[in-house]
Amino acid sequence: MKRSRIGLLLLIGLIVIATCSSANLMAAAKVLKLAEVHPADYPTAKGDSKFAELVEKYTNGRYKIQCYFNSQLGSENDVVEQTKLGVIEFTRVSTAPVVTVYPEIGVFTMPFIFTSQEHMWKVLNGSIGQHFLDACEKANLVGLGYFEPGSRHFYANKPLNNLASLKGLKIRVQPSPVPVSMVKLLGATPTPIAYGEVYSALQTGVVDGAENNYPSWVSANHYEVAKYLIQDGHQRQPEILVASKKFWNSLSKADQAAVKRAMKEATEYQIKEWNAFEFEALERAKAKGCIVKEANIAEFQAAMAPLYDMPEYKIYKDWIKKIKNTK
Ligand code: BDP
């Protein structure tokens, strides 16, 4: 009897210790938010999920990242602002919305600034790319790294045969300065709208067209309501993953290194996913009856060239030179 009571006490003691230590572990696992406008199966969103998985792994489960896809946390401009304020820990966006809090990075939104995918990655992986990640600090953000954006093309609900076809059309643009100026130069009317609302804007005729890469055109179903695409490839806007500086400063040096390592590996993974899907998306659109025309790129370049002389974009001048000189 006595022995079994001791045994029972020991067992209770063990249960209490086990419960306390797992409670400690649970208390230590901090859940962080990551905002994303794309659905979970989009290549860039898969990059976010890989990043989340690796952050958890490299911090031994002390940090868990919950990804909120499909603009659940708001438009890109909103989530950049919330990340700046520290309400959201991580945001994956394209460059355009970051311009609202950190204007210089807008050089990456200039049309035809990158001559190819290789040229863009050379810039991003070199000192220029690093400079822009570091300088996000000015906006209380920490630039963690880039994802592949693909190149952007115009599409509409009317045939697009050449530059002249865009004249007079209402074109959705990202709410950011360069996209607005760029579309004006083509003789079209720029209409800034958040990404999550583009499909219904196209469907209801609020706009006649939009511009984006093939994966967005297809995965957001824009191609169902804007089936004519002209392959002008006017922009490659690096996708960027930023953290809130407030949150970043709460991390130990070792955890900061773990997060950076996770991002580096997530980037490699995202690029592979992107390259596998980009042209598959185009084929999918064609198979659904979309009409894809090759553009006379020189014609588009000439129409957009005056952007490079506009006074509001003079702040990019030195960076433009450095980017062009990166071979
Ligand atoms: C997509 C980008 C996304 C942008 C969207 C847009 O991945 O980050 O927000 O374009 O046009 O290509 O708003």
Description:
The protein has 2 domains: 26-148 and 238-279, D-Maltodextrin-Binding Protein, domain 2 (3-Layer(aba) Sandwich); 152-236 and 281-324, Bacterial extracellular solute-binding protein, family 7 (D-Maltodextrin-Binding Protein, domain 2, 3-Layer(aba) Sandwich). The chain has 14 helices and 11 strands. It has helices at residues 2-28, 43-58, 76-85, 95-98, 117-125, 127-134, 177-185, 198-203, 214-219, 222-225, 245-249, 253-287, 297-304, 317-324; strands at residues 30-35, 63-68, 90-94, 141-147, 152-156, 170-173, 189-192, 209-212, 228-235, 239-244, 291-294. A 5-stranded mixed sheet has the order 2-1-3-10-4, sandwiched between helices. A 4-stranded mixed sheet has the order 8-5-9-11. Strands 6-7 form a two-stranded parallel sheet. The chain is an alpha/beta fold and 327 residues long. The protein starts with a helix and ends with a helix. The chain is globular. Helix content is 47%, strand content 18%. Residues 37, 44, 76, 93-94, 174, 195, 212-213, 216, 239 line the site of beta-D-glucopyranuronic acid.
